[in-house]
Amino acid sequence: GEEVAQTPKHLVRGEGQKAKLYCAPIKGHSYVFWYQQVLKNEFKFLISFQNENVFDETGMPKERFSAKCLPNSPCSLEIQATKLEDSAVYFCASSQSEGEQFFGPGTRLTVL
Amino acid sequence: RKEVEQDPGPFNVPEGATVAFNCTYSNSASQSFFWYRQDCRKEPKLLMSVYSSGNEDGRFTAQLNRASQYISLLIRDSKLSDSATYLCGSGGGNYKLSFGAGTTVTVRA
Asked: Which of A20, B4, B105, B108 could cross-link to B100 by cystine, CB 3.0-4.6 Å?
């Protein structure tokens, strides 16, 4: 599509529950990025993919976070055993290469 | 030290005024720079890329100063619709962007 699509818009989970977020990049874009935005606009890079391959995962909390981009499927970000501090807006972005990234509308995760 | 730092503001300006603010970056190897605009925690929307020679898009002008490691954004003839948070993004290795915490601009009638 012409825009990055993310689902769901909002997600509420109890502590310890699993959360799964989805992202469909702009058609033709090879790179997908996941960012976490918490209070005060602080953005944190989590992980990026080049097509189905992990490109950079230096920002991922390895213990509970995982992500995939499989052919012909939306990319996903999964959080096992959510914690209160995981509450944030998770943005997905896509790009053709190094350069401008275009962001999806985000998924607001609330962990209670 | 954060990789990208911005003055959080807020910058409160009347309609028609000029407002300018900077963003500093610490990674001297950064190759690409961007200004994004974010409204009320919605998604960041690309405002403009920042080139070495500087660039202008209508009322918006962006400059890059590599020697002092900062980029700037200037908004001329401010409109009410320019009220937003402006995020500075710096591209380092592996294409990921590092963002500042944003500068809030409020344009009043």
From this structure: B4
A45 neighbourhood in chain B, CB within 8 Å: 96-98
Closest partner residue to A98 (CB to CB) among B38, B46, B95 is B95
pLDDT tens-digit profile of B3-35? Answer: 999 999 999 999 999 999 999 999 988 889 999
The β-bridge relationship of strands A75-79 and A65-68 is antiparallel
Residues in A closer than 8 angstroms to B34, CB to CB, are: 100-101
Compute, in degrees rounded to 10, the torsion defined by CA atoms B31, B51, B70, B30: 0
pLDDT digits (tens, 9 = 90+) for A69-105: 999 899 999 999 999 999 999 999 999 987 899 999 9
Q: Which residues of A, range 2-31, sit inside 8 Å of B by Cβ? A: 31
pLDDT one-digit tens code per residue, B20-75: 999 999 998 888 999 999 998 799 999 999 988 889 999 999 999 999 999 999 99
Q: How far apart are CA B2 and CA B26, in angstroms?
A: 7
Residue B93 main-chain phi, psi, to 5 deg = -75, 155
